[in-house]
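Structure record:
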Amino acid sequence: MTSRTTAIDYVEDVSPGSGALPPRAWYPSSDAKSLSLNGSWRLRVSPTVDAEDDSFAEEGYDAEGWPEVTVPGHWVLQGDGAFGLPIYTNHLYPFPVDPPHVPTENPTGDHLRVFDLPADWPADGGAVIRFDGVESCARVWLNGTDIGEFKGSRLPHEFAVGHLLKPSGNVLAVRVHQWSAGSYLEDQDQWWLPGIFRDVTLLHRPAGSALDFFVHASYDHVTGEGTLRVDSDVDGRVTVPALDIDVATGESVTVPVEAWTAETPKLYDGVLATDGERVPLRIGFRTVVLEDGLIKVNGKAVLFKGVNRHEWHPEKGRALDLETMREDVLLMKRHNVNAVRTSHYPPHPAFLDLCDEYGLWVVDECDLETHGFTEQAWRDNPVDDDRWTPALLDRAARMVERDKNHPSVVIWSLGNEAGTGRGLTAMAEWIHGRDASRLVHYEGDWNCRDTDMYSRMYASHAEVEQIGQELDGGTHKRRRLPFILCEYAHAMGNGPGGLADYQRLFETYERLQGAFVWEWIDHGITHPELGYAYGGDFGEELHDGNFVCDGLLFPDRTPSPGLLEFKKVVEPVGIGGDGSDGTVRVTNKQDFADLSAFAFEWSYQVDGETVESGSLPVPALGPGESADVKLPEPPADGGGGETQWTVRASLAADTAWAAKGHPVAWGQFAVVARPLPTVTASDGPVLGERVITLGPASFDARTGALKTVGGIAVNGLRLDVWRATTDNDEGAEWQTDARYAELWRKYGLHRMRHRLDGVEIGDDALTVRTRVAPAAWEFGLATVYRWTSDGNRLKLTVSVGPEGEWTVPLPRLGVRFGLDAGADRVRWFGGGPGEAYPDTKSASQIGRWESTVDALQTPYLRPQENGARADVRWAEIGGLRIEGDPEFSFSARRWTTEQLDAASHRTDLTPGGTVWVNLDHALHGIGTGSCGPGVLPQYQLRAEPAEFSFVFSEIS
């Protein structure tokens, strides 16, 4: 066979490509035949674009020796590294910045698929091959004929191929380049993963089949009527049986309808029928406007309780199947999420079908980010270079035309972190002209020249409040616009902290229309040795470590404590008050629906255990309405213990997204405060040979260190101020807030020395005086341990007095000690069931809980401080009962804090022979300093005088 050469100029051409059909509306199916070309393909990966010629695309080429890969898929996630490895960068381009040029070392994957047409494939009509996503540049041949090339990784491209098809032995060849000019437009914070990662489909196009069509379905909230008009490139008729609609395309019809909202996602089934094709439609009537300085849907301002969603699967990367997408949507709905920003590219189109069906507001974002140009002060940024504008407009058009028939899509976004420039203005103008029924967003446009809202990311609470009060200044246009935080609450590792404080602002100031957490899921890659890999684990030259693991879900889609906190903070029903007057205040925080979908119940707890419960009649309050609902009479005898009410709202019936009884909201109200533990100091310490006894306890006579409580060995009890630093403690180099992990290590808080100043045996107490301080610095903590006993129980009172000048807060303040490794079961009365910290404890419910030590741990991909249970009254572990005055935070783990701090992956942690227990009087907050504001002042743990007590006893 004669070797052919291959032209490669298209790889560095700034144009979007050639040969592709104009973009059009996507629909999942019709009565026209289709053939999925997903499945097993042959693959050859070359190190450069020109290492191989294009003879592989010829009919009869022998590729039997090539390995097989799965399409959709990324070749670097298949073959155990034989085809290359993933690369993660946040914003740095992993190649020299010299647009539009890319490196000579440019991994190129030649893909081959041989297919036969089904026996019932029609002989007449045409055909189209559709690629829903290929990264980053592809050239396509069918049966030896070059049919075109394209860029725009997360966008669809169709090619007419009917004239090239034959009944059997069709050879589809696709050459995919990892790097291209298009890579400069795709610098999103994610893994660089080349391949054909979305569906490849052959579509029969009968004569007279549908081309592009636009479903316009508006809603008049005053009359309750919807107006439908379907504009179609090919004439036809539109029928909607439930509404008795049967009209020609291009004609409007107005009828009474139920509106579509994210809370009430009413869809009407319809059909677009042309001479050659019947296309099913799912129609949602709704109207989006900018009015009175607010984003309004169906006449009402909306509050976005959103997340940013990258597409991710820990084994398949961005190649998601329908069930994974459905799992995402169901998890969002079940955790009170009502909006999603498709960061930072249009998702697989089937995801938007699910948003239509289950009900989510969508900010549909274009496949555009040029963040790496910030390193050169945005010089040569493609969005401000007219040569690139056709590519930008092509990306905008492919997004809008593909997704324009989804009622869930209420906002178009131009892209993310691409600076500013003429190209963005051109995109905004084109979108506004093509679709006046939606608004346009772009965070980088702080002056709102091209956009319909003022959008920011990671603004502090104080600045957000200033914006809510309309005291932020800015251009005249901006001051008249609503505000959203398109990214906030960076969910990296333990956190995000401060969610409740943000939500209070959103619910206070009308201009603040909500926010989107960054982000939905950790992008960890399944790894045989590390559990989950992140940046740097594949030997990348440049990488940004675990910054790619900043989601509300772990990679396996297990909800993190952050998602549970978010669910609580944004719950659609407010249950407030203090219960003291026998009522509870219920508020409907929804924008459209009343409360009839929810059932309410009360329960009454004594010392954390429910003693009575029942249903609570609550009126079907409308959106924004509140009512004081009377509680029943409390039980007569609280037993002298701590008592409280708990009121819960749950689904009253099965829904599409959760079963009847699914919890939606809750509130708790104390009635009688708990009696604090008391120990009468009736026993005195007794000095023996090398040991001091006091009640049930024994101490080392020289150091005063606790050795046993009853028959339970206790190891190394002493003051502890250190924690394994969180991602938010570590902060980021571009942050203006203090990076406390760095300062804590500078000042030696991870290596505190404990000096013994005295052991005093009194008549009724054993007192141990110490000074806890770091080497090299003059400041420290004067710490006194005072032990007393009534003969059966042992009380420890810890007094801490700062000495010298403390310029940083403490990570924690409490005591740490070790128990035998057999200590496994944990019971406690306090906050639970999950972890909680001062600024992340909205979701912590007061009750009685049980766990194993292992189950107390939160498996963050980069190990760090985790697992503390807040507001604990008492805890039991290893035969020991511990009561606190005041309440305390409790954690226990099978490794030391130092080992946890040193670990970089979960698999670095190996259980030892000791269970280490922390009883914390106070903890420093969490914040979002990994990319956002740090810990708010009210949650910082200042070095101040403190006194706290614990009562120890052996469980009989």
